[in-house]
Amino acid sequence: MSDQTIIRFEQVTKQYDDQTTVLSNVSFEIEKGKFYTLLGPSGCGKTTILRLIAGFIEPSQGQILFNGKVINRIPPNERQVNTVFQDYALFPHLNVFENVAFGLRIKKLKNAAITAKVKEALRFVNLEGYESRNISEMSGGQRQRVAIARAIVNEPEVILLDEPLSALDLKLRTEMQYELRELQRRLGITFIFVTHDQEEALAMSDEIFVLNQGKIEQSGTPNDIYDEPINRFVADFIGESNIVAGRMKQDFEVEFTGRTFECVDQGLNRNEPVEIMIRPEDLEITKPEQGKLKVRVDSQLFRGVHYEISCYDEAGNEWLVHSTKKASVGEQIGLYFDPEAIHVMRFGETEEEFDKRLDAYSEGQDEN
């Protein structure tokens, strides 16, 4: 555990009384001053992790450490953690000032200290002058800021955010993504954010944990997760992708759709069955004779910044293409892609095995 580690899960499992396992032997570390996102579908365990960190529930097995000390049985009010809930959990009968001051009054701080801390928290979230405003008079974005001010006023070391943007409309949600990220940078404290929205996770995070069925499938930077997904689940969940069956011929050569292509992957067995992933934006439309694949256009939708084109090759594989070029339904076109666009995924590979294979490739590139 490094000096920067603030939270550490050691083989944590959570089961409920009906023997339902929502987390299974999960281990990870959270470092100070970073923006983390727990990403995954409903029921994957991400909110359970948040509740375990907050102290609302206890693990069935394993240990949770905060700054090197086990906190399994430490009550929520004694942890240096504050939570921003999905519905914000604001008190409708209190004005903005009293909502933010609530935790400070419980601590029995003097009025002068409370006033100074509340004003400073509201300044951080750009709500100066709103102290007397009723919560019912606030917009969704303003309520969000009040909830964050109430969280930061107690000067926690970690802020937990449980899908706090899900109730906002698309435009406001996008604005709040920028505001939350900027606020985290200014505060310099750890944010742990829960969402099922992959675009939100990619836009805001320093590091992402992708969860599925109570386990962490993969963790890494947004670029790592998007460009180097470990398996079909991660590739499908993070962005759109084309995935077809293939076979590794040898290092830097893979076969799919009946042809052998140059790739950048190595460290897999010869003739090993694999899955091939190519992102839609990495496919370039060309004339049929110039493409690495020949396909026929099945449908086309205009998405504003690009056309979304669905097409099929002769083997019946569907290929999704994002392109600024327009194509005609029924037209035969070619698809060109670079070797770097081909991502080879091994069946059943663990994240540790994947990292070793990726490191081996990186070392080989450095030597070249």
TrEMBL record:
Annotated EC: 7.6.2.11
Domain of life: Bacteria
Keyword Membrane set for record: yes
A Pfam family: TOBE_2
Keyword terms of this UniProt record: ATP-binding, Cell membrane, Membrane, Nucleotide-binding, Translocase, Transport
Catalysed reactions, semicolon-separated: ATP + H2O + polyamine-[polyamine-binding protein]Side 1 = ADP + phosphate + polyamineSide 2 + [polyamine-binding protein]Side 1
Record SUPFAM superfamilies: MOP-like (SSF50331), P-loop containing nucleoside triphosphate hydrolases (SSF52540)
GO-annotated molecular function: ATP binding
Occurrences of domain ABC transporter (ranges): 7-238
Top-level EC class: translocase
PANTHER family referenced in this protein's UniProt entry, alphabetically: SPERMIDINE/PUTRESCINE IMPORT ATP-BINDING PROTEIN POTA (PTHR42781), SPERMIDINE_PUTRESCINE IMPORT ATP-BINDING PROTEIN POTA (PTHR42781:SF4)
NCBIfam families: potA
Complex and partners: The complex is composed of two ATP-binding proteins (PotA), two transmembrane proteins (PotB and PotC) and a solute-binding protein (PotD).
Known role: Part of the ABC transporter complex PotABCD involved in spermidine/putrescine import. Responsible for energy coupling to the transport system.
Entry similarity comment: Belongs to the ABC transporter superfamily. Spermidine/putrescine importer (TC 3.A.1.11.1) family.
Identification of the protein by name: Spermidine/putrescine import ATP-binding protein PotA
Recorded name of the encoding gene: potA
